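Section 5: illustrative case.
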């Protein structure tokens, strides 16, 4: 069992809901965690499905919050966006894009298959320097409040189990199979290198 906390990255499309909920849960349990999005922009629901609010990744959560309040406080209170942004700004100042991060992680957990594909593609396009392995795992989590919480709990339990393995390289596939059976969710897994 490792006494050094896993270095974990949690990644969704916009670094707003699923990755931030998991970031919150993991940080409360002592993990070294960062969260990211992989999209070209941050998208939040707007007044209609074809009218999202679109922001640059440099926009702070506070700026997004103030923008939504100025547009329609009632709508964005009712749909949970203001509550989500309140949580986010307590965790970190702004969303971050995975492709712009050069930090090294032991484990990268993605929240949907298309994000997993983008992370694996990005990792495989980087020059390998140390050949240190990083495990990339996907668990599909629907992008809503309830599923984000359920997914965050599942990711947290998975990280805790991985933290307590004697040898992550040897035990991870079996551990993922157990999690698939218990959760009823399929997991994708690959190893990339730094």
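Designed sequence:
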């Amino acid at each position: 069992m490792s006494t050094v906390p896993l270095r974990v990255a949690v990644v969704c499309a916009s670094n707003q809901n699923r990755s931030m909920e998991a970031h919150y849960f993991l940080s409360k349990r002592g993990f070294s965690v960062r969260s990211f999005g992989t999209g070209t922009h941050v998208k939040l629901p707007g007044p209609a499905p074809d009218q999202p609010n679109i922001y640059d990744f440099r926009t702070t959560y506070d700026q997004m919050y103030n923008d939504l309040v100025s547009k329609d406080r009632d709508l964005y209170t009712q749909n949970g966006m203001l509550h989500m942004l309140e949580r986010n700004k307590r965790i970190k100042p702004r969303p971050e894009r995975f492709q712009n991060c050069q930090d090294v992680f032991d484990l990268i957990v993605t929240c949907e298959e298309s994000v997993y594909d983008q992370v694996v593609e990005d990792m495989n396009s980087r020059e390998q320097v140390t050949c240190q392995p990083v495990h990339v795992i996907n668990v599909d989590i629907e992008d809503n409040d309830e599923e984000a919480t359920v997914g965050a709990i599942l990711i947290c339990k998975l990280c805790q189990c991985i933290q307590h393995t004697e040898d992550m390289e040897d035990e991870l596939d079996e551990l993922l199979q157990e999690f698939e059976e218990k959760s009823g969710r399929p997991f994708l897994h690959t190893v990339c290198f730094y």
